[in-house]
Amino acid sequence: MTFANTILHWFLKNGRDLPWRATRNPYAIWLSEVILQQTRIEQGRPYWERFMQRWPQVEDLAEASEDEVLREWQGLGYYSRARNLHTAAKQIVANGGFPTTMKGIRALKGVGDYTAAAIGSFAFGLPVAVVDGNVYRVLSRHFGIETPINTTKGKKEFAALAQDLISSLSAQNGSSALSVHSAISDYNQGMMDFGAMLCTPHSPSCPSCPLVETCVALREGRVADLPVKQRSLKVKERYLTYIYIRCKGCTAIRRRPAGDIWQGLYELWLTDTVPQGATLLFHRVKHVLTHRILYADFWLWETEERPPLPADYFWIAEGDIEKYGVPRLVEILIENIHT
């Protein structure tokens, strides 16, 4: 049995049962792919379910406000995904429906090669390979590829190999469009599940692997060494001081501007100068992002007079703060203030 057909048969017996796999609705599939970027399935699934319940059609999402979308997204992080999702929904509606070609799907805001391939193959049966971290790991180990996966050369090499495997699978599954569609979709999902469930980053289940006899990494004792990843840039550190102002039942917030982290979300007073009389609640709370580590001090300042603040801050009732989408770091402070 070929590599591709082995993965396909394994998936049909062992694949994960996920709600977005029970449909070919491109909106539902696209929504799941965007939510699951940088997010574990068990964390992302409730968000997908809530989005589908609140905005069951792409037209519904397009009509929502950005604030509503960001508020529903709160807690998932990487908020540019939510903004791009909202923008792309408007694109889809303006274009008269969901695009059915790779070029059209790729043109949607925030949709990269991986997401476009996932939507194209899962929803429309397009013969394109999905390449994510799980796929890199499986291919690298099975074929013994040492090219770093985060280099231009590596991305091209793995993409070409993955596409060759898809092409061979299409040729082996007859002339029926439906059977080819199913084979492509199941194989791509199978590769992701295989990497997530069997060929895992640490302690992979090699003894029970159906590819054990042909795996180069296992034969050569290099399973723990593959895939290879080139060292990335040093993560930067950033220090923040947030102050929760409590003034006669009100507090002050602002919407974060474009060009920085958490664009479009709301935050408390961010300052370098702590006012006299403020109380330190938390010191150096650590919050890890992709390319930086944040350390934040949280203060509570109770005052009878509203202090002068920068023009972009505005006052709201304390009880209304839950109506605004805030970063997880700020949410931690608010949760502790209100307990």
Keywords:
single chain; alpha+beta; 3-stranded antiparallel β-sheet; 13 helices; about 45% helix
Distance between the termini: 60 Å
Counting DSSP H or I runs of 4 or more residues, the number of helices is 13
- The radius of gyration over CA amounts to 24 Å
As laid out across the biggest beta sheet, the strand order is 4-1-6-5
| Biggest sheet descriptor | 4 strands, mixed
Strand content: 5-15%
The total beta strand count reads 7
Give me the strand/helix succession: HHHHHHHHHHHHEEEEEEEH
The whole-number mean of residue pLDDT values reads: 93
Helix/strand structural class? alpha+beta
Detail the poorly predicted runs: none
Shape: elongated
**Fraction of helical residues:** 40-55%
Structure description:
There is one protein chain. By secondary structure, the protein is α+β, with helices and mostly antiparallel strands. The strands form 2 sheets. The protein has a 4-stranded mixed beta sheet with strand order 4-1-6-5, with helices on one face. The protein has a 3-stranded antiparallel beta sheet with strand order 3-2-7, with no helix packed on it. The radius of gyration is 24 Å and the shape is elongated. The N and C termini lie far apart (60 Å). 32% of the residues are buried.
